[in-house]
Amino acid sequence: MVFSYNWLQSFFKKKLPRPEKLAELLTMHSFETTSHQSSVISHQSVLDIDVLPNRAGDCFSHLGIAREIAAIANLNYRDSISIVKEDKILKAKDYVSIEVKNKEACPRYTARVITDVKVGPSPKWVQERLKVCGLRPINNIVDIANYIMLETGQPLHAFDGQKLEGNKIIVRFAKDRERIVTLDEEKYDLDENILVIADAKKPVAIAGIKGGMIPEIDKKTKIVVLESANFEPRTIRRGSKKLDLKTDASLRFEHGIDPNLTKMAINRAAYLIQEIAKGKVVQGLIDVYPKKISPKKIRLDLNYVERLLGVKIPKNEAKNILKRLGFKIIEIGSRLIEVEAPTRRLDVSLPEDLIEEIGRIYGYQKIPSVFPTVALIPPKRNLEIFWEDNIKNILKEVGLTETYNYSFISEREAKIFKYQPKDLIEVENPISIEQKYLRPSLILNLLKNVEKNQRHFDQIKIFELGKIFQKAKAEKRMLSGVITGDAFYQVKGMIDLLLNKLGISNAWYDEYQPTPEESKISIWHPKKCAEIKVNHDEIGFLGEISPKILDDLKIEIKLVVFDLDFEKLQKLASEEHEYWPISRYPAAVRDLAVLVPRLVRVEEVLNRIEAAGSPLIRDIDLFDIYEGEEIPRGKKNLAFRIIYQAEDKTLSSKEIDQIQKKIIQSLEKEIGWEVRK
Amino acid sequence: MAKIDLKSLKNRAKNEIEKAEDLKKLNDIFKKYLGKKGELTQVLRSLEKLPKAKKVKIGKRANQLKNFLRIKFDQRAQEIKEKIKKEAEEKEWIDITAPGKKPVLGHLHPLTQIRRKTEEIFQAMGFTVVEGPEIETEWYNFDALNIPKDHPARDLWDTFYLENGLLRTHTTPVDVRYMEKNNPPLRIITIGRCFRHEATDASHEVNFYQLDGLMVGRSISAANFKAVIEEFFQRFFGFEKSQPIEIRIRPSYFPFTEPSFEVDITCLVCEGKGCSACQRTGWMEMMGAGMVHPAVFKNSGLVPKNWQGWAFGMGFDRLAMMKYKINDIRLFYSGDLRFLNQF
């Protein structure tokens, strides 16, 4: 909010610090402030003050900022003059009657009547101050109302008294299908949630937001009915949101204003109208104020001040600060005071609120840095984060790069992946169509990463560990990755390594078997996908993506995806690891090549070798799979390297030959299997 | 029987050994004197025929000579080997300017790396790292934090709403969730993904990360906050700087803290002298903080008068941006490997 430096100066006899210095003082003790030259009136400084929302009630005004300056700089400020000379003959009640129908929405309604006004342009000094603060001068009556708002923080409204039907002002909620045309000639449809000021027949203003056109002040106006009211913040906020109409008045009301301010503000305005527009203020202040607000009393333990801020502030200094801010103090004990807060301080109700006042004016920069003295309690270990870090390190070591993607997907993307809207969590107020749903899987965005990067890189190896969202199970952490190329076995190897490093030993791969319904919506290539299982529990998938989806996403390269349930992984993971004694006896290595029909699984062959050769087989390594030239059609050649080793003796070559022979016999029992000699 | 002139044999052999230029030649000389048919071997063999007194006298000298020559041979052999090695070394050469072969490693996201560094610093000061859900309820995200419905303060947090709940706009709800289940004294930090319903630009994203911290005890003060946070920034940024990092606390407003602070640190670019990065103030705004509001203790099931402490919250992406001099927050979520491969 913009404040005039000259206007602020007018509250003080003494010269204020120069604008930059004043801005710094306000920044350090009240609100973030910058100073610069006015862009409207030359050679005038303005302060741009970021008044904190809890202080809007008293500081959306020059008077409020002047009070802050007075407290910070320890200066005395002058109150503005508001001596109203009432005309004893005429009575306000004869001109207008006020009825407040809803006292919760309008805790106070104050009005004055001024007759015989001469409407015209306001004097230069008023116009200048309004302009500096970004308001447009209109005529002396309207300008004075605005001027008082900028000065005191109380929005005022002026009606032409002769245009109010029935000489009535009624504060009530609008009726359905009532309409109003505001001062700026905009039409608004009202409803029963919107508070209005009405005359005997119709709404004449949207309460606390904007005046209506009908009782507008114009050149012919002779009688002014001045309104200085207090409205309940939530009511104004709801109305302003509903109508999508924000004004200087609504901004102030929706933050809350002290009801006790209306009287001072209306008297000040009446005084200025009397001085400037030569009006006669008729006798009587009309004031509907059924529930008077009185100042709050708060007990403050000065030891608590010291304990919370961690700095010793002398008692007198603390008391002084509060006094400078307008608080009244009664001493109760040597370290206990009772503080009466002025009603304008809507933000103050607790001892902590007073501590803030003392602390900020005293200066937070004077608080020393002191390490806490506490019991030595070691931090608890967070296993989720431990495993997360662990997994990320392993994947990094095998050459994958970590990505962070958006938590959202678009409707189009949901369709590509054939997600049903009923399974997805929808964002009710997305900013763009890109954020229609929360991501139900990490795969989609990873594939988009591939699409974007494929121009720049020959091979892409990426992963993400993050939350996914589905209606069935709100949020869940997943670990997914993509490796480009014909990389099924490479990725399978990575997963094996990962599970091994996590101490998960009983993992196996099962044929992907979707139900007929599942296969219709599956993203996986039906023949090139495996379920990763631990015991009987499925912990994830590994495989290629359906070519149709890749096509839709404009991905032109082959790729393999893995998708693991992190929560399950983390539960299965274990740090336990036991050393396997190194055999003192040498190991022997033999190769074995087997020709088998193409569709025979490697696992079947491995199982046979192991069954026939155990327990002397230490390790079997498949080092080649070959199909093609020199091999009969429909067959493939599997080349194994078998390592033999005993725990208790050196195996003789005769013994090894015997086992090898046993293995060969076992393999050749199968029809179509042939060990190549 | 020829006269046995051991002295001349010694001189000859010694001479020849010293002149031998390669191992083959040395071996030939060895054979000539000490081989099966070598001169000295023959002398030793011929001793048997001599009378006893003479045998002892010459035998002793011959054996001494044999040992002497063996040592000479060994020494010379060693010398020749070293010479050969040295010559060979001088011939060998590699071009050390040719590029090395790098093993292919992956990369951790910069936010992961910054997260680990942050966790490490706070854990060293006894803070436990905790987490909470990304889908929150109105209660935890707002009401419990003393942000009432229909209050202008709620405008500070632009929110994505879901059919059930909302996407958390900050990680502060984790503080309440933690206090519900754990009694003070406590020290925690939480780093997590948050969401804001606002247009994106170089410094705003719809999803981003926030770091929140909380310390509660019987007498945890604002002075304690200053010390802990100063230490954090010092360890996070300070080691590369010539001046210690200072922090500055200004008044602020958050519904869940009272008093509330805005925390600035010495500008990292100009180290406090004033530059364009800090609008000539010498300070950079880093975080919001304050003393936990009694209403928040109450909403977390604690008795406010028994406890006091502080909480802070800061944009985590910004911390990473400052650390690595990244000028656009959107790069973090772009998945662009030209960016990610740099970390």
Walk me through this protein's architecture:
The complex is a heterodimer of chains A (677) and B (343). By secondary structure, chain A is α+β, with helices and mostly antiparallel strands. Chain A is 31% helix and 26% strand. Chain A starts with a strand and ends with a strand. In chain B, the strands form 2 sheets. Chain B has a 7-stranded mixed β-sheet with strand order 1-4-5-9-8-7-6, sandwiched between helices. Chain B has a two-stranded antiparallel ribbon with strand order 2-3. In chain B, helix 1 packs parallel to helix 4 (52-91). The longest helix of chain B is centred in the N-terminal third of the chain and has 40 residues, at 52-91. The model of chain B has no long low-confidence stretch (mean pLDDT 91). Classes of the chains: A alpha+beta (677), B alpha+beta (343).
Sheet having the most strands of chain B? 7 strands, mixed
Question: What topology, given as strand order, has the largest sheet of chain B?
Answer: 1-4-5-9-8-7-6
Oligomer: heterodimer
Mean pLDDT of chain A: 93
Provide the helix percentage of chain A: 25-40%
- Secondary-structure content class of chain B: alpha+beta
- From the N-terminal CA to the C-terminal CA of chain B, the straight-line distance is 89 Å
Share of helical residues of chain B: 25-40%
Order of helices and strands of chain B: HHHHHEEHEHEEHEEEHEHH
Specify the overall morphology of chain A.
elongated
What is the tally of helical segments of chain B? 11
Record field, number of beta strands of chain B? 9
The gross shape of chain B turns out to be: rod-shaped
List low-pLDDT spans of chain B.
none
- The parts of chain A where pLDDT drops under 50 for at least 5 residues are none
User: Helical segment tally of chain A?
Assistant: 21
What's the end-to-end separation of chain A, in Å?
Answer: 92 Å
For the largest interface, the chains and their residue counts are:
A-B, 89 and 77 residues
**What portion of the residues of chain B fall into strands of 2 or more residues?**
15-25%
Radius of gyration of chain A: 41 Å
Q: Give the beta-strand count of chain A.
A: 32
